[in-house]
Amino acid sequence: MTREMLNNSHILLGVSGGIAAYKAVDLASKLTAAGAKVHTVMTQNACRLVGPKSFEAVTCSTVLTTLWQTQPSRTDPADAANHVALADWAEIVVVAPATANIIAKIANGICDDVLSTTVCACWSKPVLLAPAMNNNMWDNPAVQQNVQKLKQMCFQIIGPVEGRLACGIEAIGRMAEPQDILEAVGKIASKTKGGTQ
Q1: Which end of the chain is less enclosed by CB atoms within 10 A, N or C?
Q2: Are 122 and 90 in contact (CB under 8 A)?
Q3: Which of 69-91 are b and which e, b meaning 16 or more Cβ less than 10 Å from the residue's Cβ?
Q4: What DSSP state is assigned to residue 110?
Q5: β 63-64/170-174 pair status
Q6: pTM of the model
Q7: Does domain 2-192 have CATH number 3.40.50.1950?
Q8: Catalytic: 47?
Q9: Catalytic residue among 47, 60, 122, 167, which?
Q10: Where are the beta strands (DSSP E) in the chain?
Q11: Closest among 36, 185, 177 to 125, alpha carbons compared
Q12: Across-strand partners of 98?
């Protein structure tokens, strides 16, 4: 079912600088295996945790890591590696992991890096955020306020879930598993293809 819904879908995958960034490579691979065309946008901090080449390898697409990056357009217009071109190309946007930082930027229209700027340009598209952070950060009233603001703006949220965090404790804050995110994207795609959001 997910494969049918995602076949030839244009998925923009945003990766911010949380330790769960390594799981985003698996998500990109699963989306591609399901037939989606995937382009990845990474923050500089995400690049410190996992290399852009990993995403390029599993998606066969250029990875955008800075606003100043340019590439000649090939057969796919999104290969121009321009945040505006990618925003126009995308049908669904997924940010995984979504750190407290990127959630705050998106909720408040702050555009100071390639990911926040790209998501800002995608505001009218279906956007799924997969938060991942320490439980104390997740429970912070400012973070919760930003999450509620995004929900009111029709952004969709999956997770976080309870599990072992990077600090070694078991608590809520772990990013939803890539398979669960994949299934959520499939549901969004089915509504989008059905003419609803």
Answers
A1: N
A2: yes
A3: eeeeeeeeebbbbbbebbbebbb
A4: -
A5: unpaired
A6: 0.91
A7: yes
A8: no
A9: 167
A10: 10-15, 37-42, 63-64, 92-98, 127-131, 156-157, 161-164, 170-174
A11: 185
A12: 131
